[in-house]
């Protein structure tokens, strides 16, 4: 099966040379070492099995990201004890080596602590992006290099290919499975050494069919749903354990200045939230913003959520040219402000120092600090990068 090919809308396509293999590298598969990042789920398992069946020199690697003894009874989380066992069993079935690496301390510092501190600062973080950015695509890629692997393959549903100006990141062929929003922080240097074999598949059913064809025990394994270190989705309980005293009370205040009640911690609220506010009011109210300095939750009508200008920081640019050397009026893009929202027409203007302002053609509701604003090409499937939404 051919890997990582863009569709006809994705720009310049470089045809595979007869001197390159299906990963776009010189030499036969047997002479090409690939580290397969294996979470124990069906997606990464199929990638490892697929490459092994093609004859690549596959080395499977699974990361132990937290105490897997405590995680054994935790359902719906990746990289837990059961998942490590499942990854090892796939490697045994396909006949390639498999290693488990202890990344607990790195994961805590780079992901879990950032998650807790972001909530305390009134933001709504996305730890899966930070995990990809700071652990899997940085530290694990370094490990792949130490293992003399030419590339690392993952089970993400995105596409990557070599364009006229270097590696490009594209949406997956299946819009329902596309994970490009969570990979916006991937750099060009990382893209050069990453491969995403599932990006061209038409559906998750095709992935499961391949798992069954390879005889993998994970063929029917359910997808993980929760953040791996947050059991049952109870963010507040995890943050209070990490940061005692995080649930300090404060006022719930209407935009017009009325004090409507008291809350038991900013960490229990997110921008756009309507249910569970703990107040009674004659009209529907939403969380408009969080003020960590005053510990106030500001609420108001739905229309007050609309924003057209969004400040972003830590911009990662994957488009052609220098991001700071933008044309007059900024770069024309489509912007996506939440993983559950479609992209919409916008312009992004560089402000220097990795900061920028995104101006949407139409206001979006529920834009929250800590979420990602991901940039896409106005036409086609290419990802232009993105940045982290900050407080104005």
CATH topology of the largest domain, what is it called?
Answer: Rossmann fold
Q: Which quaternary structure do these chains form?
A: single chain
N-to-C order of helices and strands: EHEHHEHHHEEEHEHHEEEEEEEEEE
Strand fraction equals 25-35%
Structural shape: globular
CATH homologous group name of the largest domain: HUPs
Head-to-tail CA distance between termini:
47 Å
| Helix fraction bin | 10-25%
Please work out how many helical segments DSSP would assign.
Answer: 9
The gyration radius over C-alpha positions equals 22 Å
Going across the major beta sheet, what is the strand order?
A: 12-15-14-13-16-17
Q: What is the CATH class of the largest domain?
A: Alpha Beta
Which stretches are low in confidence, meaning pLDDT under 50 for 5 or more residues running? 1-17, 68-76
Structural class: alpha/beta
């Amino acid at each position: 099966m051919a890997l990582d090919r863009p569709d006809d809308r994705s720009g310049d396509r470089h045809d595979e040379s007869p001197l390159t293999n299906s990963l776009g590298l010189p030499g036969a598969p047997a002479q090409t070492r690939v580290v397969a990042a294996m979470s124990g789920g069906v997606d990464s398992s199929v990638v490892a099995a697929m490459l092994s069946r093609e004859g690549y020199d596959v080395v499977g690697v699974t990361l132990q990201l937290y105490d897997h003894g405590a995680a054994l009874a935790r359902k719906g989380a990746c990289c837990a004890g059961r998942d490590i066992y499942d990854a090892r069993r796939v490697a045994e079935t396909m006949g390639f080596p498999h290693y488990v690496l202890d990344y607990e301390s790195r994961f805590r510092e780079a992901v879990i602590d950032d998650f807790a501190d972001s909530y305390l600062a009134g933001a709504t973080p996305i730890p899966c992006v930070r995990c990809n950015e700071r652990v899997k695509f940085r530290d694990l890629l370094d490990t792949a290099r130490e293992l003399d692997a030419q590339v690392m393959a993952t089970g993400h549903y995105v596409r990557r290919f070599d364009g006229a100006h270097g590696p490009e990141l594209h949406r997956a062929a299946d819009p329902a499975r596309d994970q490009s929003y969570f990979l916006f922080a991937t750099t060009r240097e990382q893209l050069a050494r990453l491969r995403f074999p599932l990006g061209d598949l038409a559906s998750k059913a095709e992935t499961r069919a391949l798992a069954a064809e390879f005889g993998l025990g994970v063929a029917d394994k359910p997808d993980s749903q929760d953040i791996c270190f947050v059991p049952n989705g109870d963010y507040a309980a995890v943050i209070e354990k990490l940061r005692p005293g995080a649930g300090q009370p404060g006022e719930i205040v209407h935009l017009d200045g009325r004090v409507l009640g008291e809350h038991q911690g900013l960490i229990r609220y997110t921008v756009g939230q309507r249910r569970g506010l703990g107040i009674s009011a004659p009209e529907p109210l939403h969380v408009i913003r969080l003020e960590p300095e005053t510990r106030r939750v500001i609420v108001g009508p739905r229309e007050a959520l609309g924003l057209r200008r969004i400040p972003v920081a830590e911009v990662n640019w994957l488009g052609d040219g220098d991001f700071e050397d933008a044309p007059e009026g900024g770069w024309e893009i489509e912007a996506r402000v939440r993983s559950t929202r479609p992209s919409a027409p916008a312009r992004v203007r560089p402000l220097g120092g990795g900061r920028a302002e995104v101006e949407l053609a139409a206001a979006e509701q529920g834009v929250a600090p800590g979420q990602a604003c991901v940039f896409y090409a106005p036409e086609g499937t290419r990802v232009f990068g993105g940045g982290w939404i900050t407080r104005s």
